[in-house]
Amino acid sequence: KAGVTQTPRYLIKTRGQQVTLSCSPISGHRSVSWYQQTPGQGLQFLFEYFSETQRNKGNFPGRFSGRQFSNSRSEMNVSTLELGDSALYLCASSFGASSGNTIYFGEGSWLTVV
Amino acid sequence: QKEVEQDPGPLSVPEGAIVSLNCTYSNSAFQYFMWYRQYSRKGPELLMYTYSSGNKEDGRFTAQVDKSSKYISLFIRDSQPSDSATYLCAMIPEADYKLSFGAGTTVTVRA
């Protein structure tokens, strides 16, 4: 069974640009969440979607947004990139109908902002 | 004070030793407890999942949760060089969908 798939794996952007990252969850999983991982802050929650609805959002500025499609695939977008947005962005999926479902992560998208 | 505290290490042990990792937390609402292993430049891989208090064993791995003390542990027996990685504890409250992570402990198993 395929795991969580994230694309692209690596990308370099310039300050002020925007970026869109994509995530395909494990087949049958309807919950997709996004995390940012940096050496200084560790893993921080961005947002979570279930059946195309955002159920939870972390403490990130409005430049960070996401959406989920009817096939459970998800995208996150970061606009007006800043140097501090350089990080590993991780997508995770679970069955998600209730809390406590096991959560599986993808390999991540490495974003470098120059 | 962070919601989940985890000693970042690094921790270096000889091959075959028992690795002991732990996390403390402050939010009594946490009900589900997980340990993830993350190799360099890879995503976190789920190792152990425990609901509420108790012990769980899977091969060389044992997870313990003591909710009364707000303390969780992971033990790795007969450690191997392939166990060298960063270990992250994570937890989530009932009726919530957001994982709270510890900082991660970097473990090196010396051959």
Description:
The complex is a heterodimer of chains A (114) and B (111). Chain A contains no helices and eleven strands. Chain A has strands at 5-7, 10-13, 19-24, 31-38, 42-50, 53-57, 64-68, 74-78, 87-94, 104-105, 109-113. In chain A, the strands form two sheets. In chain A, strands 2, 4, 5, 6, 9, 10 and 11 form a seven-stranded mixed β-sheet that branches. The radius of gyration of chain A is 13 Å and the shape is globular. In chain B, strands 2, 4, 5, 9, 10 and 11 form a six-stranded mixed β-sheet that branches. Chain B is mostly beta strands and 111 residues long. Chain A binds chain B through residues 4, 6, 31, 33, 35, 42-43, 45, 48, 50, 55-56, 58, 90, 92, 96, 98-100, 102-108, 110, and chain B through 31-32, 34, 36, 41-46, 49, 51, 88, 90, 92-104.
TL;DR of this structure?
Chain A has 114 residues and is an all-beta fold. Chain A is built from no helices and eleven strands.
Observed structural traits:
heterodimer; A: 114 residues; mainly beta; 7-stranded mixed beta sheet; 4-stranded antiparallel beta sheet; globular; B: 111 residues; 6-stranded mixed beta sheet; 5-stranded antiparallel beta sheet; 11 strands; 0% helix; 58% strand
As an assembly, this protein is heterodimer
Count the strands of chain B?
Answer: 11
List the secondary-structure elements of chain A in sequence, H or E. EEEEEEEEEEE
- Average pLDDT score of chain B: 94
Helix segment count of chain B?
A: 0
What's the end-to-end separation of chain A, in Å? 37 Å
Provide the helix percentage of chain B. under 10%
Report the end-to-end length of chain B measured between terminal Cα atoms: 37 Å
Structural class of chain A: mainly beta
Low-confidence stretches of chain A: none
Number of strands of chain A: 11
Radius of gyration of chain A in whole Å, from Cα? 13 Å
